[in-house]
Design brief:
Blueprint (H helix, E strand, L loop, with lengths): L3 H7 L2 H24 L5 E6 L7 E2 L5 E6 L18 E2 L14 E2 L1 H5 L2 E8 L13 E8 L8 E17 L7 E8 L1 H13 L1 E7 L2
């Protein structure tokens, strides 16, 4: 099979020079085209005026801007489902909204965070995910042979994060970080030592 170099070598001198010049020009044109193609832009939310902390996004002036790097930013051209989320740090006009600076309403009413580990079989087989809400049940027993009593410890507890940890010895374990009040944190700490905890996933 004849290569491009062999074909160029077989051309008359002037044709080889012309072909090389055309090839160089074509390569340069491709390079210029690649450098001048605008990057892909994505809409992100930005402050359309001074934004105070502690206010729901739906009550604030928010617009959007097209950017080429969305790391840490909130993608979209409107507030949408984030209307009841709250800004926790004030922003000046034109500053982008960062995902790390907003909180769901559940974390405003329950501003503390608490870790909890539950066997996956007692936590909807480990299917609970960040952003879900769960009811927490605790089952207590006075001792061997006594009747076990189950009660609802808390309802609609917001899940900040959830990870399933595999364990061959005791089965999979769901490790969560929950949004809690001071009172719930105390109740949950007591319950985790006094009985078995089960999680019930709340359907949206």
């Amino acid at each position: 099979m004849t290569t491009v170099s062999e074909r160029l070598a077989s051309l008359p001198t002037i044709d080889r020079r012309t072909a090389l010049a055309l090839a160089s020009g074509f390569a340069a044109a491709l390079l210029v085209l690649a450098l001048t193609v605008p990057p892909s832009l994505t809409a992100v939310l930005v402050a359309d005026g001074p934004l105070p902390a502690g206010t729901a996004l739906g009550d604030l002036p928010v617009t959007f801007r097209d950017v080429d790097n969305t790391d840490g930013l909130i993608i979209g051209s409107d507030i949408g489902e984030l209307a009841d989320w709250t800004l926790v740090t004030p922003l000046a006009e034109g500053e982008p909204l960062l995902a790390s600076l907003i909180r769901p309403p559940q974390q405003i009413t329950a501003p503390r965070q608490m870790a909890l580990a539950v066997p996956a079989t007692q936590a909807v087989l480990g299917s609970v995910q960040a952003g879900d809400s769960v009811d927490i049940l605790v089952t207590r027993s006075e001792g061997v042979g006594s009747k076990a009593i189950t009660e609802v410890l808390a309802r609609d507890v917001y899940v900040i994060s959830a990870v399933v940890a595999e364990s061959s010895a005791f089965g999979d374990e769901l490790r969560l970080v929950l949004a809690v009040t001071d009172e719930l944190a105390i109740d949950l700490a007591n319950a985790s030592h006094a009985g078995d905890i089960d999680l019930v996933k709340v359907n949206p």
